[in-house]
Amino acid sequence: MNMFQQVVATNDNVEACKDVNIAIMIAGHSRKDGLDTKDLMSKNVSIYKDVASVLEQHAAADCKVLVVTNPANTNALILKDFAPSIPEKNITCLTRLDHNIALSLIAEKIKVPVSDVKNIIIWGNHYLHRYPDINHATVTIKNEEKPVKERIGDDHWLKTEFITNVQQRGSALNRSQKAKNSALSCASAACDHIHDWVYGTPKGKWVSMGVYSDGSYGIPKDIIHSFLVKCEKGKWSIVQEKKCIQCLELIYAMVGLTIDALTREKMVLAAKDLQEEISMAKSCLD
Ligand SMILES: NC(=O)c1ccc[n+]([C@@H]2O[C@H](COP(=O)([O-])OP(=O)(O)OC[C@H]3O[C@@H](n4cnc5c(N)ncnc54)[C@H](O)[C@@H]3O)[C@@H](O)[C@H]2O)c1
User: Fold this and answer.
1) Do the interacting molecules here have an ipTM over 0.85?
2) Best exposed site among 52, 204, 234, 241 by fewest CB in 10 Å?
3) Contacts 24+ apart (CB under 8 A), 134-141
4) Does the domain at residues 95-278 carry the CATH identifier 3.90.110.10?
5) Residues with active-site annotation
6) CATH architecture of 13-93
7) What are the alphabetically sorted keywords of the record (predicted)?
């Protein structure tokens, strides 16, 4: 059944937010407007402060929010601060574009379709220090699932060119396509984010989403940080770090992921970068 009914184009925030179940927030300025970081931030966080209360008052009670506008993690946090009655679980930001870029670079390197690669993680902020972690990623070739690291076998490339490419690909797209910038791949990533959030992620597969930190992996609490999540029945949950659990009376099992020293170092850097960005954003609102 085709659920699409109509498009309403409006510059009235109340009309735009009325009864919406899914809000994809793309309003704002981008670097192509020639703004420096502080000016861009100041303009965009003010937009998010203003729109937060409109969304809180007029959107559907269960509205799922995806913030795309940069600085995406921080705008999402500002939106939450100024819309306190929207549940934390309902406010997210887009890091799926970085996730998709990382998948495609790996697929290109191994020469397989992107759909054969899974479980890359983007940690941190949708900005300079976002960190693509391939330690748990796998590629399936002829029905055989193997670690990406093993298939690539070029540790130097993974630790250098690959990381830099993921971190800089968005701005490279902006430079190369000028006015069109990364809009199409960004739109496609936003669809992926909402699709998986609403319909769920397949068993054994996770995706990257900017979500409220509960302190998992030692990431500071109460910031919006990119984690690996799985989604089920319209809800996301963070895939947890390796720990020992009691599964039967006297039987213990190790579940979750292990984090290596390099990833831990990059995660700390990404979280620090994000906390500095949040302080700068809050100073713009004072
Ligand atoms: N998170 C990501 O992965 C990702 C990827 C690409 C772009 N982005 C960001 O998304 C944002 C949008 O990018 P774009 O290329 O579509 O920019 P754009 O300039 O083409 O579109 C932004 C739109 O927002 C509108 N706008 C400006 N102020 C507004 C306000 N106060 N209320 C309502 N609308 C307003 C503008 O008129 C414009 O139409 C930028 O901040 C960009 O950096 C994020």
Assistant:
1) yes
2) 204
3) 134/102, 134/106, 134/158, 134/162, 135/259, 135/260, 135/263, 136/228, 136/257, 137/106, 139/106, 139/107, 139/110, 139/112, 140/116, 141/110, 141/112, 141/116
4) yes
5) 126
6) 3-Layer(aba) Sandwich (3.40)
7) NAD, Oxidoreductase
